[in-house]
Amino acid sequence: MFKYDVVDSTNEIAKNICANQHKRFVVTANIQTTGKGQYGRKWLSPSGENFLATFCVPQIEITSDSLISFAVANAVCIILKECGFTSQCKWPNDIEINSSKIAGILTEKINDWLLIGIGLNLNWPKKRSELVNGKRYTSLYAESGEKFNVNKFVSLLSKELNSQINKSTAEILKLYKSFWNKKRNIEILVDDVWIPARQTGIDSEGALIVESVHGNIIKINTSARVRTNAV
Ligand code: BTN
Asked: At what angle do helices 169-179 and 68-82 cross, to 10 degrees?
């Protein structure tokens, strides 16, 4: 394990380290100065309050490449369940508690490695009523009033990730659907315009099937953007 106090981003540090590694490893940090989110967004996290880690796996060890981020989301939901929290997945891989984001996942491929960046809000005294960039966030502390140990989550997640990423595509998908919040109101980006849509299913490749307000059935792949209305 590579443990840092301050880094720009654990995913960026992992990219430098993996050239000299052969086996799985983890990079953790207390503080990220430029934490990366999906779609080029920033991942904000106050000093030392949250879980920030990148799990690095040789790509050759991954059985179900296309649904890997679902397998990661499953692992996070399982760990949260073990800790007494009911979480749900907002397609494709936001983890929410009561429709507020608790964790984000950023997977990146670099050479022969898969980097799995996970940010999980642990002890951030966030109020669910606050909006950050139009989204609601929460933390385990905000949900329970209890403080959580960051190191505990490194070992819990390492173990659960190892188990989940080795499952078959069918198993990953089945489990993911049990965590997926199908009823969540979403909006999809069509020709640069956000339009409300109803989620109807997820196909065998992980694409989201939605019905737009105009009654059109649209398939959205995992690189497309979907947003939720703040509730
Ligand atoms: C998202 O936008 O939902 C994904 C957020 C991923 C954040 C984590 S924190 C650890 C790792 N390092 C980063 O810079 N990003 C990921």
From this structure: 50
The predicted structure's pLDDT at residue 231: 43
Token pair 């956000």: residue: 194
For residue 47, give the CATH number of its domain: 3.30.930.10
Pocket of ligand 1 contains residue 106 by CB under 6 Å: yes
Strands 135-136, 131-132: pairing is antiparallel
Residue numbers of the domain that contains 86 = 2-179
Mark whether 171 and 201 lie in a shared domain: no
Q: Ligand 1, atom 7: nearest CA belongs to which residue?
A: 119
Same domain, 79 and 140: yes
Distance, in Å, from the CA atom of 68 to the CA atom of 167, rounded to the nearest integer, reads 10
Q: Are residues 118 and 210 in the same domain?
A: no
Domain count, the chain: 2
Would you give the end-to-end CA distance of the chain in angstroms? 39
Q: What is the pLDDT at residue 213?
A: 84
* C-alpha of residue 213 to centroid of ligand 1, in Å: 32
Q: Which of 30, 106, 132 to mutate to test the pocket of ligand 1 (most atoms within 8 A of CB)?
A: 106
Mean pLDDT, consecutive 10-residue stretches, the chain (231 aa), reads: 96 96 96 93 84 94 84 98 97 92 95 96 75 80 92 94 93 97 88 89 94 88 69 43
In this structure, are 101 and 190 located in the same domain?
Answer: no
